[in-house]
Amino acid sequence: MDRAAKSQFRSQNHISEWSTPIEAQLSTADGVRVHAAYRPGTGQARDTAVVVAHGFTGAVERPAVRHVAEVFGGWAGGVVTFSFRGHGRSGGRSTVGDREVLDLDAAVGWARSLGFRRIGTVGFSMGGAVVVRHAGLYGGVAAVAAVSAPARWYYRGTVPMRRLHWVVQRPLGRVVGRVGLRTRIDPQEWRDIPVPPVVAAAAVSVPFLIVHGDRDAYFPLDHPRSLHAAAPDSELWIEPGFGHAENAAEDALLERIGEWLAKAAPTG
């Protein structure tokens, strides 16, 4: 059976499981309530859970996030998705990659409380920055994969990123974010600049995968290459034809990432 057929087979055979997730409201270290969902997987890595960190404006209920988790469920024992603060049914306001590391840490802790011995994290775009920062600064995970992640803050070199900065930094932009993008953004600027992903990457001591598309309209290829240079033991995939984050990720790529996670955090 080829990879595409395997992906279709897994999707067809997980429909009933994925229709009834276990949901929870998690509490972060700074007191924000985070909406999370857990679904059992059918992969051979039975004691491994994958925690998925979505991109900016994503959420547990978004179809792309649900699909990513469904595919990973074919490789792992279970999958946890959650909505970052200011997104979906979570409380608080988005700090665009800063305090979101606390949201991820709460989701990782929940996965561990469900009985999983090994936790792999995979993040997309903003979520990619968060999983790198979490692995480097907090640790406690068995493997980490960053997809379409920025290496540094304040990048404005592309039109989509200039638009995003307008949404985040301007009062009218935040209205657009709240009403049009269903994302509530903290109006307060960062008091202290958070440790950037490229610095945190150097402290990642577990298997580390960096995935980026050569058609990414947000972050050019110097971002993944900078992350890889900072963490020379990491693995870098430059994907031909791939755009940006979970909305552009096709099943074949997700299957490969799921397979990598299962091997990087194997059952022991």
From TrEMBL:
Residues 47-186 form the Serine aminopeptidase S33 domain. SUPFAM superfamilies: alpha/beta-Hydrolases (SSF53474). Keywords: Hydrolase. The keyword Hydrolase applies. One of its GO terms (molecular function) is hydrolase activity. Signal peptide: none annotated. It holds the Pfam family Hydrolase_4. This is Alpha/beta hydrolase.
